[in-house]
Each structure stands twice: as structure tokens, then as C-alpha cells.
Amino acid sequence: MLKRILKYLFYIFILLFQACENLNEPGETEFKNSVILQLQNGNAKQQLYVYHTFPISFSLGDPLFLDGYSNPLANDAAISIIHGDTVYSDFIIEFRDSTKRHKYYTNASNLFIEPNSEYDIKVESNGELIEGHLKTIGDFEIIEVNLEENNAASFSLVNIKWGKADQAKFYSVSVSYKYWFNDPRTGDSVKYSVSGYPFLFDPDTANGENYFSKQLKIRSNADSLEIEINAYDQNSYNYFVEKIQRVGIENAYGYLGSNTSRKVNLYSNKSE
Amino acid sequence: MKMKKLASYLILLITICTGSSRANQISVIGFVKDAKTNERLIGAVILNGGIGLAVSDSSGYFSFKLNPGKYFLECKYIGYETAIKEINLEETDEEFEIFYFLKPQPIEIEKVTVSGVRYKELEDFKTYELQSGDLSNIPVFLESDVLRAFQALPGITSVHDLSAQIYLRGGNYDETLITLDGVPIYNPYHLGGIFGSVNPEIVDKAVIYPSNYPVNYDGVLSGVLNLNSKTGNSEKIKGTGSIGLVSSKLYLNGPLLNGNFIFSARRTYPDLLFNLLSKSGELFPYYFYDFYSKYTIPVDSKNLFSLSAFYSKDIYRVFEDVKNSVVDKKENPNWGNLIGNLKFNHLFNSGEFELGAYYSISNLDSDAKSSPLSSPLFSSAADSLEAVHYVYANNSIKEFNLNSQFKLKLTGQDILLGVEYKNLSISYFWNIKEYDIGASINGNVEDIFFDFAPAKFKYNDETEIVSAYFSDKIQITKVFDVMLGYRGMYIKNVKKYLNSPYAKIRYKLNNNLELSSSYGKYHQYFFTKRELINQSYYYPFSIYFIADNSKNIPSSDHYSLGIQIKEIIPGIALEVEGYYKTRNNIYTSDELTKTYSYTKGYTAGVDALLKKEMGAVTGWASYTFSRTVKNDSSNKYFANYDRTHNFKLMLNYNLSEKWKLNALWLYSTGLPFTPAIGKYIKHEYYRDGGGEKLEHAFGRKNSSRYQDYHRLDVGITGNFIWWDSIIAKPYLQIMNVYMSKNPFNYDPNPNDVSLEDGQEVGSMIIPTIGITLEF
Questions:
Q1: In chain A, fewer beta carbons within 10 Å around the N or the C end?
Q2: Is B675 close to A26, i.e. CB distance below 8 A?
Q3: CA A246 to CA A34: how far, in whole Å?
Q4: Smallest Cα distance from A193 to chain B, Å
Q5: Whose CA is closest to B654, among B572, B719, B740?
Q6: Which residue has the higher pLDDT, B11 or B367?
């Protein structure tokens, strides 16, 4: 009887043979690089960042990021931006600041990104080829800027209206204030700048079919101010807002996105 | 050729069996009731000389056929005295009625019963079942809960201590259909999955089909859990009242007009107590309640109408504590279920006819907004759109169903025939700008609805499903029976016919040993798009989608092989069942790109259950080995809820006639997670601080596991009679007695520097105290 039971139990456990496989190996990181490129319409200087992926045991404060160590900030990348028959591969490395922690590649010569145009990128780094394709965002114009009378002493109201950009997923509006004053130590006239916090403008909340508008509260004590509107594409939205870790590129973390920018300057009466 | 021959024999056998039913056999019909309360009893067994003839159904009815002659028929039911009736069937009889009124046995603490122990030969499907008395014997978390109680049984797992969701033999939680009297309840949870929404007071018997399930159910890949409600007392009004730490419950049943009713209500009250005692003016933001009512009218001994309604609601008073803001609350976030169910049963010569209609709704609504009270300069974030929080949602899942079925009992055959029409509609619309809802729950939209759900979403869909089904259990010989079944469905929106065949053979080697094997194919056309994301442990409302592509409808083939030994050693029974399930078109998501796709995989496992039902110590020990693997084109990985080894020990000990101890110890493999094994640099937008930030680079999906999970819960329940008319049942339950540190989440910090970092553990000891009064 017992033998018979054991025999049947054995048959049942045979079902499990297929399930005995080891899937508990973390393996390696999916990609060896991260690449970040935001193509800016009309800008001659395009910045592209290439980083190597590095072990979990490092943190940003480690000496890893200083010269002399195995640097994850890739300086071995071969980069191409392709537009039709034209291939831009004249990129150089620049150091962002004196700490030499950050580096980027830039072409300061003739790479003007055109709106509504197709671009491909290729980056070879760390033994891997990263590729991406993008249609750039369309351009737009600022249509109107009106300063409203306001009794409040500390701020004024500005109504700003701008047109739509093709393929724009969101807009951001930011304000930079400039104050001119004389440095009592040197007697020189110097500029002090402060930036307003940008906010996202969701096209779905637009109040017109062909334009968007926003009323801004601005400081009334600045000597001048600059309002900047940026339009961003879907890829930028996915990367920055949706926090998707790979957008528009293959074989690397990061993203390939597009934006276009317009600015308007306002000057205070007191500076006259 | 051989197959042809075999088929011919099979047809011949069926014909013989069917033919023999035309002999002069007499239909015996009737029902089983509680002699004291007149409640109809579900699952009572009618036996002739120890051989099972029938089991009373959800209405208490039974029927079978016998040749003319004299019989002594026994009727047995747990907790009741066995009744024996002598009947004499004459050749001239066409039909014979017999009614059993069983007397409850003297008050004793109920035994925990797991289906399959007694009269297993009458059950056509592998099931585990819990009856109303069993719940008091299983340690609870704050509230006694039917769904959570099932987690103590083999093959059923949970993802963390607080979850009542059921993961059944390798299926995701949405792959188990949860029904109340056969009516599906979508999102059947209170408090985001912590409690089931059905008040356990109304449940007479809960049955789970862990693998192959009957053809009158459809639409899920794993199994079915049906909660059968009680029927009312026909003599006088009876009831129970319960007071616990979290809620109070009231259950009433009794005669009403020509029929009987049951009614239950439950409400949580921490909000009322907190608001009463709070000196700061702050309000407790959450409460839930539910109602159930059923009215049954036995028109005569052969016809029965019943009408029932279920309503549950969770309310979260969002933005109650948002400072310096203007709060505009048209409707607080609230979610719940509404069910209406109408049934008619007619008992006729050698069978039963059932006609039913139901409407089941699961919904979530909200329309609340908070804006800054004052608007500082634009340079402050308070004036940006980010400062305005709003939660607008209008989501609903609706199912309307018309169904009809015949149960025919012929000699050697039990036949079920049925048709069903179902209209399924979904409507989702939300716009949510809130990452810190009321400062109490920190959750993203995607955690609430489905993987990577956007903050703004609108979606509507609808389909109709027409089904026909039959099953036939054929007793080939005394020791060998076959069950064949088929369900055909037409899904209108994808214009697709789906076939679900089913077959089972069972062979009794002797009175102690039985072997069985079964096969079934299942489809799931209504599912969530959700894998367990590490951060997700709160599910107030899952979004279900109707399959929109005929090629992507998830399907599964179930194969099982089982052995049952009634007494492997005296007083102890053993059940072992091995299973293998193919899984096709299973949802899978990619966290890196926040996209989803459909993949294939399998589940393989063995459930073993040792049970002891007699003596001072009763309970069970179970072990499950199970592996659920998904296999997409580039990767093979464990499902997020896979627990390879699972051991459960449930014990009850009668301290005295008044007190009973219970204990549940769980030990299982830790859940899989995707480990962070590297880092890379990403850029952030201005509003998030801007600049370069570290982000984790992850290894292979689900290639690491949390440390093993284990927990001990203990409890003590009492049973006292007060003033000859009230039974008081006080209880004290303690969850996680030795404060086991069980990981429930993986959220690595950029400063973590090893694979082990980032596991969040819970180690709370949670006591529960309360009392139930039966009157």
C-alpha cells in the first residue's frame, strides 16, 4: 500500500521537473551608457551628454568623479548627428566648471537644428552603439505681451500670449529678473539676476485653439526682466515628467528630445 | 484505430448509462433545513448505506433517482445530528418528496473543516472550503475576513501581511474570480485591499476552486472563490452583533411576510472616535461601511424566489488637513460595489431549473480640489499650477447578466446545462494632480489604477458575451467516474469564439485511496494591466480592461494529477495534487520604458495537505511547491508574486468547553524583486531640482528575492451562554507574535551601495480584541 502511494506521489512530483530552473541571477545592467540629448531649434550649440554606467557601490560624492580615477563620464564617445545627407560628427569635449566633474560634447560651428525635421543620432561608447531618431518640434512665436495696471506695490501683472508649436506636449514659462546697482567696493555698475520658478503649461488647459495665454505676476522692483517660453516635445515630457528612463534611443539609458525657445525682455521705468 | 474503438466504447457506455435512466426509476426530491431556525442548509449529504446520493445545493434542495424499494436514507451535515428516514418507493410512484429538518448538535466550538475530508466522492472538483464557524478558528488581522482566511490554505498566497488579495496557484490577483452567490464582485476590498468587502457574518459557506472550476463560471485563468450567503430563519428573528477594534457589525435574520430575510451592516468607527477625542480639530480621514440583504420566498416545496442586494462604500475625506488652502469638495474620493441579484429555482422531476439575473457595479468617484489660500509672487512655487491639487475621477465597471441552467440527475449521471448572456461595460475618466493626498497617503496614480497609469485618462469600452455550457459526470463503474464539460463563448467586441473544454477522471483504488486527473482550458477576456510593482501595496481600485484584440486574449491549460488518502495514519488525511498550467498572453510590463506587452509562461506546483479533524487538537499542515515563470522574448523570470516554497501550520486546541486556542504559522520563500545592481546619471527638470542625479540601473527582472517570510499568529476564542438566550464569543487575536521582520517593499535609495539595501520590512505585532453576541 505504502509503495503504491509513494509511486503515485512520485508521478505527481514529476510534473515539477520543468520548474526546477535557476532564475535568480541578477546579471548585468541592461545598458553600459546613458545618453542625454535635447536638440534645440535654431541653436548652434547642441549639448550632448554621455555617461558610463557604474557599479552600485559608488555614489556621487566618491572620488570616482574626479580626474585620475576611472571616470564614468565618458570621454571616448564617437558621436554623429545625421540630417538627410549631412553628417555632423565634429564634437569636442568641454569642462563645465573648475571641478572637472562634468563634461559634455558640443559642436560650436554649424549645427543649426531645423524645426519639423528628421534627425538621427549615433553614439559609440563603452563598446556599444546607441542610436536614436527624432522629428524636431515646430517653432512658435510670442504674439502679445501686455502689462496690466496693478495697485499692489510689490508686483505687476503681465498677460502673455503665444502661438502653438507643432508636436508640443508641454510648455514651460520662466521669468528672470535683473537688478543693476553700483558695487560700493569698486564703484562699478553690476547686474544681479534672479530666476522665477518655471511652471509647466499643459496644452489641454489652453483657452484658445491657436494660441495659449497666461497671466504672470511679476516683481515690480526689477530693472528688467526676461520671460522665456519653452515648448517641449513628447519625448521630453516622457523623460522629465513621466520619468521614463529610456526615451527615443536604443541601447542606453537617457533620452533624445526636442525643444524650441522664445524670449521677450521688459524694462522697468525706473531704469530710464 | 484504437482511439476510434475507445470512443465507441465511451459512447456506448454513455448510452447505456443514459438508457438505464429510462428504466422505472423514481425521482426523490427534497430539501434540508435547520430544525431550529428553518434555515436551508447548503452542502448536506444524503447517503444510502454509506454511499453518497446527493448534496443539497445553494437553496438547500437535492434530488436523485432510485429504483423502487425500501431505503434508509441518512442526511449528514457538520454541526448537526444525523437524521435517518425510511422511504418505500413503489413502482407506481413518479416522484417522492422527502424533507430533512436537522437538529443542531449541542453547542460546541466548531471544527475547522477543509473540503475534501468527508464524502469527497460526491465532489466533482477539487475545492477547499470554509464554513461560517471556521472563521473564528483562524487568527485574524483586526477584522475577521473571509478572503484573508483562505490565505491559510494550500496553494493560496498573499504578497504581504496586510493584503487580503488572493494569489491562487500561480495566478495574479485578478485571475481569481470572487463571487457572492455566483455574482462577480470586481475590486472586492475595503481599505485598498486590506479587508474583503463582504461582511463574513453573511457567509454560510465559502468554496474555492483552486484550479479547474465548473463550467458555469468563466473568465478567469486561475480559479473561483464563491461566497454562499446564509438563508434566513423562518420561525423568529435571530441575529448577531459584533464589536471589534475597527468596526461593529450587525446581522439579523428571520421571517418576513411569506418568506425570510437576512440583513447585515458593518461600519468602521476609528473616524468617529478620533473626531470625538481630537482636541486639535484634525479629522480622521477614512471610513467604510457595507450592507447586505436577502429576501427569500419559498412559493411552495418546489419553487423558490430570492432577491438580494449588496452595497459597500469606502470614503476618503481628502484635503481635510490641507493648510492655507481653499478646499472645494464636491465629492470626496469614494469607491465600492453595488450588486442586485434575482434568482428563481424550480425543482422538478429528477432535476432543478434555475433562472437568474444580476447587476454588479464597481465604481470610484471623486471631485475634490485644493488651491493655495493666498498667491504670493510668481517666484514662489505656490502660484504655479503645481500648487493646485485636484482629484477628479469617475470610474465604473458594470456587468449585467442573465442566466439559466438545468441540473439533471439521471442514474449514473449528473448533467448540467446552461446558457448565459453578459454585458460588460467599463468607463474610466480621471484627472489627478496629487502626489500627497491629504498628507496621509503618499501614492502615485499608477499605484492606484494600473501600471504606469497617466495622471489624466479617459477610456470607455463595452462588450457582450454569450455562453452555453454543459457538463456530465458519468459513473462508469462503482470505482471509476468521468466528468466531461464544455463551455463555449462568443465575445462580441473582438468577434471571437472561445472554447473551454474540461475533463476529469477519478478512480477509487479502495475505500481509503483515490486518484484523479483533470484537464481544463480557460480564457480571461477581462483583466487588469498590473504586475506587482515594488512600490504598490495599496489597491483601492484596479482598472480592468476588456480584451480588444482576439489574438491577445489570455488563456491557460490546466493539467492536474491528485491523490487522496482518507487516513494515511489513523485520524489524519492526506491530499496531494500536482498541477501544471500553461499561460499565454499574460500581461507583463517594462519599468524602464513604462510600456507593457503580453508574454507566455507557466505555473507548476504541488499542494500537499495533511488534516486532522478529530480530537482535542485539530488543524492542518500544508506544503506547496510552486513556480510561476514568465517568458518573454528576451527574458525568463519569476512572476512578482511567486513564492516557491510555502508551508502553513494551522492548529486549534480545545482548552476547555469554553475556551479554544488557535495558531497559524506561515513560512514561505520571499517574493522576487528586480535588484538595483548599478547606477547611471540622469538629468532632471527644473521643477524637480534640475541638474544631474543618480538613478539606479537594475539587473534582470525579478532575479533577487526578499529574505524568507515567516509569521506566527495566535488567538483565543471563548464561547459562553448568557441568560439562556445569548451566546457570547469573545476573542483575542495577535498577529505576528514574535515580530518577524518581513520585507514588503523594495525601494533602493541612491545612497544604497549593496544589493541587500532598499528592502523595507514590517515587524509590527498587531493585537485584535472583540466580542460577538448571538441572540
A1: C
A2: yes
A3: 9
A4: 13
A5: B719
A6: B367
Please check the confidence at residue B534 and state whether its pLDDT lies above 50. Answer: yes
Q: Does A217 sit within 8 Å of B375, measured CB to CB? A: yes
CATH of domain A33-135: 2.60.40
Most confident of A13-22, A195-204, B10-19, B57-66: B57-66
Q: Which of A2-6, B9-13, B67-71 has the highest mean pLDDT?
A: B67-71
| DSSP element (H, E) containing B604 | strand B595-612
CA A220 from centre of chain: 31
Sequence spans of domains, chain B? 27-102, 120-671+706-774
Characterize the bridge pairing of strands A199-201 and A170-182: antiparallel
pLDDT at residue number B387: 55
The region of weakest confidence among B43-57, B72-86, B215-229, B481-495 is B43-57
CA dihedral (B743, B747, B749, B754) in degrees, to 10, reads 50
Q: Give the Cα separation of A132 and A53 in Å (integer).
A: 19
User: What confidence tier does A147 reach under pLDDT thresholds 50, 70, 90?
Assistant: confident
Identify the pLDDT of residue B22.
42
Which residue of A5, A24, A36 is in closest CB contact with B704? A24
Instruction: Assess contact for B198 and B311: CB atoms under 8 A.
Output: no
* CB neighbours of residue B126 within 10 Å: 26
The three three-digit cell numbers of residue B430, written as one number = 480621471
Given B576, B685, B750, which is nearest A12 (Cβ)?
Answer: B576
| Cα–Cα distance for residue pair B551/B498, rounded to 1 Å | 11
Domain boundaries along the sequence of chain A: 33-135, 142-271
Complex ipTM above 0.90? Answer: no
pLDDT bin (cut points 50, 70, 90) of residue B466 is very high
For the domain B120-671+706-774, what is the CATH superfamily, name and number?
Answer: TonB-dependent receptor, beta-barrel domain (2.40.170.20)
B694 interfaces chain A, CB cutoff of 8 Å: yes
B202 alpha carbon, distance to own chain's centre: 15
| Average pLDDT value over all residues in chain A | 77
Please name the member of B509, B638, B686 whose beta carbon is closest to the beta carbon of A23. B638
Fold of domain B27-102? Immunoglobulin-like (2.60.40)
